[in-house]
Amino acid sequence: MSVLIETMAPIFGLMALGFVAVRMGLFEDASVKGLVLFVFNFSIPALLLRSLAQMEFPPDIEWGFLVAFYAGSLITYGLGIGVARFAFRRTLPEQAIFGMGAGFSNLVLMGIPIVLTALGPEASLPMFLIIGAHSATFMPLTVALIQGGRGGEASRAQQAVRVFGEMLRNPIILGILAGLLLNLSGVTLWIGADRILEFLGTAAVPCALFAMGASLACYPLGGDVAPAVVLSVLKLTVHPLLVWFVAVPILGLEGLWVAVAVVMASMPSAVNVYLFGARYDTAPGVAARTVLLTSVCSMVTIAVVLNLVGHVP
């Protein structure tokens, strides 16, 4: 238990520091946005690019763990839609935001630092494989449901092209693709470029955690709480349980890769859930409170999951 506390304390301590800094007026809203942009556009992509470029891929990759993660995630996404439709009588665009809140994990700002800290560098490859397809899976699905519910003017083909273009402009996706390309081509990074990427990547974990806490301080606390509570239960308990169930009893998988999939599924709802709600003016309050509530409660649930998977260093 002491090792678990030592692992989790610095992670949530940095988040708490960011939260308190904003609440006390020591870190302005504009600074929060700037730090988030730095993390998303520079630091995390540099970490992913350099790590993947230098990584030695094992001869046999447990592809089943990806099936388990995405099967569990899509089922939880569907449960979120069902809750929105039948329990809260929400429209299709709002159902999409509910689904995203239930099944779309914060893999970057929290997943990367927690997995690397708790499971070690050997967890990098399965973690990066999960991240690589995450946004490309759920963001187009959510946009399609929102636009379909609104009967947007753009055709489905036009919407698909637009979403695909947005994915290709995503710095994190570009970092993953560039790292894989360098690795497969056998090209070695020039030492100057490698040091730049190393410096940027070193800042990724602490800056991501501070930015996450600072971002949460900007969200409203009160209002329509019931949907956020239900979505939080789905996200923090049902989601990792489903991933484990598909991976272990159904597919018969075991080991570190399963642990990575389950831990990644136990992450709170991603900040993008709120960004999508605000961008499309669709259940933004529910989205904000879900992100906030899952992030706070995950301090306990992630610790429980790490203890259960038995891979705490």
Topology:
Layout: H1 2-23, H2 29-54, H3 64-87, H4 92-103, H5 107-119, H6 124-150, H7 156-168, H8 171-185, H9 191-202, H10 204-216, H11 226-250, H12 256-265, H13 271-279, H14 284-309
Would you kindly provide a brief summary of this structure?
It contains 14 helices and no strands.
Report on this structure.
This protein has a single domain, classed as Na+/H+ antiporter like fold (Up-down Bundle). The chain is mainly alpha-helical and 313 residues long. The radius of gyration is 19 Å and the shape is globular. The chain contains 14 helices and no strands. α2 runs antiparallel to α10.
Key terms:
313 residues; mainly alpha; Na+/H+ antiporter like fold; 14 helices; globular
What best-fitting shape do the alpha-carbon axes yield? globular
CATH architecture: Up-down Bundle
* Count of structural domains: 1
Based on secondary structure, the structural category is mainly alpha
Largest beta-sheet details: none
Helix share, percent: over 70%
Looking at CATH, which topology would you report?
Answer: Na+/H+ antiporter like fold
Low-confidence stretches: none
**Succession of helices and strands:** HHHHHHHHHHHHHH
The CA-CA distance between the termini, in Å, is: 11 Å
The count of β-strands is: 0
Determine the mean pLDDT.
Answer: 84
DSSP helix count? 14
**Rounded radius of gyration (Å):** 19 Å
Strand content: under 5%
CATH class: Mainly Alpha
